[in-house]
Amino acid sequence: MLPSRETRLRMFFFMLLARRLDERAWALFRQGKIAYHISGIWHEAIQVAAAMVLRPEHDWVAPYYRDLGLMLVLGMTAKEYMLGLMGKKGDPASQGRQMPGSWSLRRSNVLSVSSSVAAQAAQAVGVGLAMKLRGGDQTVLVSMGEGATCYGEWFESVNWAVLHQLPVIFLIENNQYAVSRRQDALMPVRDVVDRARGLGLPGVLVDGTSSTAVYQVIEEAVQRARQGGGPTLVEARTYRMTPHSSDDDDRSYRQRQEVEAHRQDDPLLAAQRMLESDGSLSQAKLAELESRVAETVEDAVAFAEQAPFPAPDDMAGAVFVPVGEA
Ligand SMILES: Cc1ncc(C[n+]2csc(CCOP(=O)(O)OP(=O)(O)O)c2C)c(N)n1
Ligand SMILES: [Mg+2]
């Protein structure tokens, strides 16, 4: 079902917030104020729509490093994001120990991101198994890139989830690159969902630049999972508009024309146009949302800049459990 006008407006707000925070992160990197950034630009529709379908503090999520939009919908604040980006003590994920993008948010049932690509698939399946054993209608959504579906861990995890009909949604945010490798240099199938048949689960390919399309596909997958119908593989297609991370120079492996050709597929602009065309977003309302978001970003940056770093003598804190507390 097409999400309601209210849901579509909410999705647009979070996509806008994610985009402006992300753009600010790139600026902070160039100013030398942060050490690293890994961007979710052009992934916003997928992330925001998927998170919007879930029931907060009821369902579980195993995200990956690009999932800023998803984390914002799940309750991570702009201030918390900036604290993590700047490695400050107030970062809810690791008190400033992990690389930016290594989210976790205990209060929202968000598992900690592992730096090992595809590790979260097995973790999510473990959560799904616990859900099935306990009964109830919880689901777990696990997200990752298309490159991650080439790892053995991913196949093993999906196999197990299908075998035991676990309530897991495997969300693949296909941005067509895994660092410098194009998708066709990584896998012998055209679409990631082509793998679904062999693995024995439903697979759905969706336009990842359309928040409403992603919302509907995830809603169906979540319903299936809640009703005991097992896992679903969702492939949402977008394009990686930025280099892999702030450490990468993508000019060494792809043409500028290729990147520019995707500029017209902006998921944020698509959501805006849709709301404008059905009369849900006036110029005045858009300006109000933009200024609210700009203020939120400014506040978050100012707050995080003056926030303390972790103390050097607390280096192992929030990393190891002190002896006796395990
Ligand atoms: C097990 C493992 N192998 C390699 C890496 C290095 N690495 C980090 S991200 C990445 C590419 C992942 O591509 P994809 O899954 O498509 O996600 P994207 O970054 O494109 O969103 C690789 C190879 C890693 N972190 N872990
Ligand atoms: Mg990718």
Description:
The chain contains eleven helices and seven strands. Strand 6, helix 8 (211-226) and strand 7 (232-237) form a beta-alpha-beta unit. It is α/β, with parallel strands linked by helices and 326 residues long. The longest helix is centred in the first third of the chain and has 26 residues, at 5-30. The chain has a single domain (5-308), classed as Thiamin diphosphate (ThDP)-binding fold, Pyr/PP domains (Rossmann fold), CATH 3.40.50.970. The termini are far apart. Helix 1 (5-30) packs across helix 11 (283-306). The strands form two sheets. It has a five-stranded parallel beta sheet with strand order 1-2-3-7-6, with helices on both faces. The chain has a two-stranded antiparallel sheet with strand order 4-5. The chain has helices at residues 5-30, 44-53, 68-73, 78-85, 119-134, 152-163, 194-199, 211-226, 256-261, 267-277, 283-306, and strands at 60-62, 140-145, 168-174, 177-178, 181-182, 203-207, 232-237. Residues 145-147, 175, 177-178 line the site of magnesium ion.
What order do the helices and strands come in, and which of them pair?
Blueprint: H1 5-30, H2 44-53, E1 60-62, H3 68-73, H4 78-85, H5 119-134, E2 140-145, H6 152-163, E3 168-174, E4 177-178, E5 181-182, H7 194-199, E6 203-207, H8 211-226, E7 232-237, H9 256-261, H10 267-277, H11 283-306
Parallel strand pairs: 1-2, 2-3, 3-7, 6-7
Antiparallel strand pairs: 4-5
Helix pairs in contact: 1-2, 1-10, 1-11, 2-8, 4-11, 5-6
The chain binds thiamine diphosphate (TPP) and magnesium ion.
